[in-house]
Each structure stands twice: as structure tokens, then as C-alpha cells.
Design goal:
The structure holds 2 protein chains of 2 kinds. Chain A is an alpha/beta fold. Chain A is built from 11 helices and 13 strands. Chain A has 2 domains: 4-219, P-loop containing nucleotide triphosphate hydrolases (Rossmann fold), CATH 3.40.50; 229-291, Alpha-Beta Plaits, CATH 3.30.70. By secondary structure, chain B is mostly helical. Chain B has one domain (20-268). Chain B has helices at residues 7-27, 30-60, 70-101, 104-109, 115-143, 149-152, 155-176, 180-197, 213-218, 220-233, 239-268. In chain B, α1 crosses α5, α2 (30-60) runs antiparallel to α3 and α5 packs across α11 (239-268). The radius of gyration of chain B is 20 Å and the shape is elongated. The chains are: A alpha/beta, B mainly alpha. The interface between A and B is medium-sized, with 35 and 33 residues.
């Protein structure tokens, strides 16, 4: 097992009677890209704030970079890069001013920051926006700038809370590309997301969270293997008929999920199953064979879908 | 690990980094800040000092103002009010911005800097604005021949100190507020405006009926104005009242800082 940068045991956070994070255990290894996947309110962001050493746990233990955040908050924060869910850039300052000021908060020398800004502007593809006011940037650019800002101190761990929520598909892909490059340079990433495709793209290993608890843990592939089948056949019969045919379909494979608008059938060979259904003259109005995803894992684990 | 990061250095200078950022933000408004700092005294001195001053002096001489020209009487009060208004701007807006509008404080809080250093940094930023405002105002008072350099230089630190006490309280109160629209309206119309009118700015507080005088007693502006008059033209105040004015402002500053430190830490830990 490689060196563990973050190690939590029985980590719990309560707000009054509400338990946001409920006795979770996890480890993040150096150079790893670790994900927290779950719906809104699962406790991901709370966990992130505890790792970021800005919010204190209620009980349990956590060690970040070998230290306890309750006693060594500033020392830990000095080596973290934090990208919050909502950009908190200074809109009145320019792109490079935002980077410069943030670097100062780490006590870095002006010379170091000036050199670093060049590197970060290249990385974030914002060279031609360096003197633009942040207010004038697009959502994707602001997001890239927030990530660049978090990198100004050359952190050991980069923490990204819902990095692509609210971005259009093109901006998401640019961002994924940037994060993938970072991963290649060996930066340890901790990512929360409720997008399964994002988790699949970026995470080496992830935990699936729901209602403050960890439901499962593993690489995206391992989780899919363990909790789902190779393929999924999605069939629609129209909302009235779905209920009618569901008992018949249930006999035809090991597991089905009835969603409000369609039925998911878990099998190894989706095409073969579709043929069998057609042979029975059931004729779905639409059908789709696809590979299993983390969405299916989540559905299996919680009985609910990720995005509701 | 980035070996260029010295946490001990940030522990020592964090507030200065925050102040540096605040001043960089203010520089984006430097034109407006300069116009306010120079235009405000200019308009007041001409309109009220000379215009209304002639009316006052012709009708009651200097009997109502303790033996000085009306302009000399109101100059330290206008100076104090400009200083406190500047302090209000730089204590209230950055706190709104920091917690609510742009959430800038949450960004700072994820660096080695802690909430107490953010409080102190914003305070230093507000003081920087006050210093600029007060020095501009005072220079104009000299230029208008209202006061002389040797007689009145000590009004500068005293006024800055009073504005600082006010800034500390405003930071604490603003950090305690959740609904800012309501808060700003109430603060401006129900507190700042009466404070300006009932703090002995345009006439001695003692000329007011006794039941209105407490508005002045609780107002930092009245204490600042009384001290300003004492230090700018030798207005007579008893030793005890001098002590009361200073003590009141010191207590305000302490309470303001305590409240701000508490609220900042609470909100940033959520």
C-alpha cells in the first residue's frame, strides 16, 4: 500500500440532531485520484470541508498529510488546493491579480508567484485573458481559473467539489482534459461529484455515499463488476404497459429495475435478451443496449437514481 | 511539498496579506474614493461652513459655538463624520462580499490564514481608507485656513482611532447579519442618518432637549466630534469627559473585535 495522505476512521459530523457524515472510513493514497460519488445531501461536501481543515469533525479520527486538522489547520491548509462548489473569485480584480493575491495568502514570495502565474495561465488556457476582469469570463473560464488559483501553492492534494456542475458539455470536456493532465503529473486529487461519467473519467477509486454513509468502495470498474452486470437493456413500453409487462420481464433475467419511464434489465448480453423479448411479441416502443455504469451501481445500492 | 511555504510566516503576517488584498480591491475604486475624499469636504466647507456659517455668525455671533467661528466649530465634526463614513464603507461592504456576495472569505479561509487574521486584515484595510480620507480632509481645512497645522495635527490620530472603533463594531454587526438588504436599509436610514444629525455635528448636543441627547451619547460620532473639537481648536472639555470619550471608543473597539472574531469563526467553520 503506497503512502496514505488522508486517513479517516469513524469520521462523523453532526449538525444538531442531523448526522451529515456517519462514521465513515477511507484512505487516500499519494498520487491517487479519489472520488466521493453520491446525490446532493449525501455528505460529500461536508466530508470535503473536514479534509480541507475548515470544518471540525464531531467524532472519529482523521489524519491529513500526517496531521490532525483540529490542531494543525494552517499547516494542513498550506499544502492543500481547494476548488469549492461555487467559484469564489474576486470579480473586480483581473485574472492575474486573483492568482497573485491568492499566492500571497500562502506567504509565497512575489517572484515565485509571478513565475507561477505564467505557468498557470498556460495550464488554464487563459493567457489572453490575464488582464481581463474576472466578471467578464465565461463559466468554464472561471472554473479553470479557480482550479489554477488552487494550484498556485503547488499543493500536495487538490480538492475539487463538484468541478463541472453547471458547465456546458464542451466546457466540461475541456476541464476534464485539464484535470487528466494534472493527474498525470502525479497530483493527488479528491473529487466529489454526482455525475457518474465524471467519476468514471477521473477517479482511480471511489466511494459511493448516501445519507452520510459509505455504501461501497472500489475502482469504477470493480464497482460495476461487483454490483452490476456487463450490459443493461433499457426498454420502454409506455407508462401504462410498463407495469403490465414487468412481471414477464422479471422472469427473463436475474434483475430488473422499474423506473417511472422505463425498465432496466441487467444481463451479460443485451442484444440476445432483446431478441428473446421480441420473440415473445412484447415489442417495446424503444430499446437501448448499453454498458453498465456507476449509475446502475448506485441504483442497486440505494434503490434510487443519482440525479432525481 | 512546496518548501517555499512557511506557515510560521503566514501566522505572523496573514492579516497584512488580507489588508494587501483589500487595498488592491480599493484601488479599483480609487477614482471614486478620491472624489469622495476631496469633494465631500469641499462641498461641506463651502455650503455649510461658509453659507450657513455666515447666517449663524450674523445672527448669534459666536455665542452658540463656544466662541469660535461656525466653520471652525463644525470642521472637526465634518472630519469625524467623513472618517466614520469611510470606515463604514470599508467595514460593511467587504464583509457582505466576503460572506455572501462573492464568498471571498471562504477562499481565504482555505489557505493557512485563519478567521481572526481575516478580521484584522479587513480592519487594517478600512483604516487605510480612513487615513487617506482624514488626511485629505485635514489638508483642505488647512488650505481653507480653518485650522493651523501646529494647532490641529493631533486631531488626525484621534479621528482615525474613533473611526477604527466604529469600523470594528460595523464588522461585527455585519458578520452577524443574514439578510443584508433589510440590514443596509435600516442601518443607513435609521442609524447612520440620525447619528449624523443628532451627534452635535451642526450644533452643540447640549442645545437639544435632554431626552434626545442620549442619541448622541451612544453615537461614536459624538465622542469623535467632541474629541476632534478639543484637539483641533482647544474646545474645553473636562478631564473626566475626555476620559469618558476615549473609554467609550476603546470599549466599542474591543466589543466590535470580539463580536467580529466570534462571528467570522462561526460562519467560516460551517
Amino acid at each position: 500500500m503506497p503512502e496514505s495522505l488522508i486517513s479517516a476512521r469513524g469520521l462523523t459530523k453532526k449538525y444538531g440532531d442531523f448526522t451529515a457524515v456517519d462514521a465513515i472510513d477511507f484512505d487516500v493514497a499519494k498520487g491517487e485520484s479519489f472520488g466521493l460519488l453520491g446525490p446532493n445531501g449525501a455528505g460529500k461536501s461536508t466530508t470535503m470541508r473536514i479534509i480541507a481543515a475548515t470544518s471540525q469533525r464531531s467524532s472519529g479520527t482523521i489524519s491529513i498529510l500526517g496531521r490532525d486538522p483540529e490542531e494543525h489547520g494552517p499547516q494542513i491548509r498550506a499544502h492543500l488546493g481547494v476548488v469549492p462548489q461555487q467559484d469564489n473569485l474576486d470579480g473586480e480584480l483581473t485574472v492575474s491579480e486573483n492568482l497573485f493575491i491568492y499566492g500571497r495568502y500562502f506567504g509565497l514570495s512575489k517572484k515565485f508567484i509571478r513565475n507561477k502565474i505564467e505557468e498557470l495561465l498556460d495550464f488554464a488556457q487563459l493567457q489572453d485573458k490575464r488582464d481581463a476582469k474576472v466578471e467578464a469570463l465565461s463559466g468554464g473560464m472561471k472554473r479553470r481559473l479557480t482550479i489554477a488559483r488552487a494550484l498556485v501553492s503547488e499543493p500536495d492534494i487538490l480538492m475539487l467539489d463538484e468541478p463541472t456542475t453547471g458547465l456546458d458539455p464542451q466546457a466540461r470536456h475541456i476541464l476534464w482534459d485539464r484535470l487528466f493532465r494534472l493527474k498525470e503529473t502525479g497530483v493527488t486529487l479528491v473529487i466529489t461529484t454526482h455525475f457518474m461519467d465524471e467519476a468514471e473519467q477521473l477517479c482511480d477509486r471511489l466511494v459511493v455515499m448516501d445519507k452520510g454513509k459509505i455504501m461501497a468502495e472500489g475502482s469504477p470498474l470493480e464497482l460495476i463488476k461487483q454490483y452490476s452486470t456487463k450490459e443493461v437493456l433499457e426498454v420502454r413500453f409506455g407508462s401504462d404497459r410498463n407495469k403490465e409487462v414487468a412481471p414477464i420481464l422479471r422472469e427473463m433475467c436475474s434483475r430488473i429495475e422499474e423506473l417511472p419511464d422505463r425498465i432496466l434489465m441487467y444481463v451479460e448480453d443485451g442484444e440476445a435478451l432483446l431478441e428473446a423479448i421480441t420473440a415473445k411479441k412484447l415489442h417495446p416502443t424503444t430499446s437501448l443496449v448499453r454498458r453498465s455504469s456507476l449509475e446502475d451501481v448506485f441504483l442497486r445500492l440505494t434503490g434510487r437514481s443519482l440525479i432525481e | 511539498m512546496n518548501s517555499g511555504i512557511d506557515v510560521a510566516k503566514v501566522r505572523a503576517r496573514g492579516a497584512a496579506y488580507v489588508a494587501e488584498a483589500r487595498i488592491a480591491q480599493m484601488m479599483k475604486w480609487k477614482g471614486i474614493i478620491a472624489i469622495v475624499a476631496i469633494g465631500n469636504p469641499l462641498f461641506y466647507l463651502v455650503a455649510i461652513g461658509i453659507g450657513i456659517g455666515v447666517l449663524v455668525n450674523e445672527n448669534s455671533g459666536t455665542s452658540g459655538t463656544g466662541g469660535v467661528e461656525y466653520i471652525t466649530f463644525i470642521a472637526p465634526a465634518l472630519l469625524a463624520s467623513a472618517a466614520l463614513t469611510g470606515a463604514l464603507d470599508e467595514a460593511m461592504f467587504p464583509v457582505m462580499e466576503g460572506f455572501k456576495w462573492r464568498k471571498l472569505f471562504y477562499a481565504i479561509n482555505s489557505t493557512p490564514i485563519n478567521p481572526g487574521q481575516i478580521v484584522l486584515g479587513v480592519f487594517i484595510g478600512a483604516i487605510a481608507r480612513v487615513v487617506f480620507t482624514v488626511v485629505c480632509y485635514w489638508a483642505l481645512l488647512i488650505a481653507f485656513g480653518v485650522v493651523t497645522v501646529s494647532q490641529s495635527w493631533d486631531v488626525i490620530p484621534v479621528t482615525i482611532f474613533a473611526a477604527g472603533a466604529f469600523a470594528a463594531v460595523i464588522m461585527g454587526v455585519t458578520a452577524s447579519v443574514k439578510n443584508e438588504d433589510y440590514f443596509m436599509t435600516v442601518l443607513n436610514r435609521m442609524i447612520i442618518m440620525p447619528m449624523f444629525l443628532f451627534s452635535g455635528t451642526f450644533f452643540p448636543l447640549s442645545t437639544m432637549p435632554i431626552f434626545l441627547q442620549p442619541i448622541g451619547w451612544i453615537s461614536p460620532l459624538w465622542h469623535a466630534t467632541e474629541l476632534g473639537r478639543y484637539f483641533s481648536y482647544g474646545y474645553s472639555i473636562s478631564g473626566i469627559m475626555l476620559l469618558v470619550h476615549f473609554s467609550y471608543l476603546i470599549v466599542m473597539m474591543i466589543i466590535g473585535f470580539k463580536l467580529a472574531n466570534k462571528k467570522f469563526a462561526e460562519r467560516l467553520a460551517k
